[in-house]
Amino acid sequence: MAGSTTAERxxxxxxxxxxxxxxxxxxxxxxxxxxxxxxxxxxxxxxAFWLLYGSxxxxxxxxxxxxxxxxxxxxxxxxxxxxxxxxxxxVDTKAIExxxxxxxxxxxxxxxxxxxxxxxxxxxxxxxxxxxVRKGGEFIEVDEEGVRFATVSKAPEGVPALELAVSGxxxxxxxxxxxxxxxxxxxxxxxxxxxxxxxxxxxRSVKVRSYDDxxxxxxxxxxVGWGSGEKNAEKGRSLTALMKAEPGARHFDxxxxxxxxxxxx
Length: 265
Known about the structure:
By secondary structure, the protein is α/β, with parallel strands linked by helices. It has helices at residues 6-14, 21-53, 73-80, 93-103, 170-194, 197-200, 232-245; strands spanning 62-66, 107-115, 119-126, 131-135, 138-142, 148-152, 161-164, 203-210, 213-218, 223-227, 251-253, 261-263.
């Protein structure tokens, strides 16, 4: 039996004739649409890149500030040093936050927001003093975390003074060595923040002799022995009830909130 001819063997090696696989799968029109779409995406991507990094349309032109109470917007803008004229996408927002935190300790938090197409917005939250420390003729403000963040020439209105009556001998010295001044300040802050509203409004000073010897002096001269900064909620409730029951007392002790005491008339 005769074998296959040379022409037949060539046809088997070349395989069946017809369009390429992609054309068979998508069709000529479908493939053309895919190619056109891919080219369009390349051009769109190039255009977006140029708009963000090369165009004058998205450069920083204005810096707005919100949330200030004591600080002025001008002072915040100066400290932020936002680079006017720089591409908005290239502005280092973390560096701006760091500069503001270093230059203006009164700022607790700041959000640096890109407002397209040409603005930077600085949303500031300032620290609020809960106590202040006298230092010569000036006053150091202390926030709810015990951070001493600003020195001012006038005592903040409605804020108690912090008196650190810690000496270099006896039990007060031992407390200072054990806990450190910063910890004692934080305890005083905890107490000030936990006072009932009626008491907080009339508290003139918070005095710290040791970790477990914190007392209050009220505006009318009455005093309160508070003890440590623990069980503050219970102490607040006991003090409120005791003041109602003994309105003529001059001294209250809630260091043991389950056994409060009063004295004087």
